[in-house]
Amino acid sequence: MTKKASVTISPKKSRREFIKKVKELSGQNLQLCYQCGMCTGNCPAAANMDVSPRRIIELARLGLEEEIAGSRTVWVCASCLACAVNCPRGFDLARVMEAIRLLTLRKNVDRVRPEDIPPQERGDLPQIAMVSGLRKLTG
Ligand code: SF4
Ligand code: SF4
After folding, report:
1. How many A from CA of 87 to the centre of ligand 1?
2. Domain contains 52
């Protein structure tokens, strides 16, 4: 009987790959951030996040994809650019948030399933908000 070949991706390798993909998709140098916290201080959505914007960068450059995926922060981010405008290092965190969302959606993991939205709410929600929300939250 022939043995099936299996490929094991080491945690270290998958972390490196995650960091590389975030950098490629966002076009940002994660090492530029010096963790001052100005982004969190200026983020209008920070109160609704479970992991602060500053900490997302820290987790991203450590390649801790699962910790980021387990939080709701990147989905709460409104892409308002307040963090990017106020960053003393010229770092565009909004692009990193978008890159992480894309990487999650590419795995066919939708944040919102349209069929789970109750029919009575579907009728009440503004159409434009529905369209933009589903573009952001589904693959
Ligand atoms: S404001 Fe800029 S440098 Fe400061 S923590 Fe946020 S991204 Fe990093
Ligand atoms: S782009 Fe996202 S993380 Fe940045 S300030 Fe706006 S809501 Fe916060």
Report:
1. 5
2. yes
| Residue 43 beta carbon below 6 angstroms from any ligand 2 atom | yes
Report the C-alpha gap between 80 and 42 in whole angstroms: 11
> Using one digit for the tens of pLDDT, what is the confidence trace for 86-137?
999 999 999 999 999 999 999 888 888 888 888 888 888 888 888 888 888 8
Does 102 lie in the same domain as 67? yes
Q: Which residues sit with their C-beta closer than 6 Å to ligand 1?
A: 33-39, 54, 57, 87, 89, 91, 93
Of the listed ligands, the closest to the CA of 38 is: 1
Question: Tens digits of per-residue pLDDT, 54-93?
Answer: 999 999 999 999 999 889 999 999 999 999 999 999 999 9
- CA angle, corner 107, sides to 79 and 33, nearest 5? 40
Residue 130 amino acid letter: M
Q: What is the pTM of this model?
A: 0.85
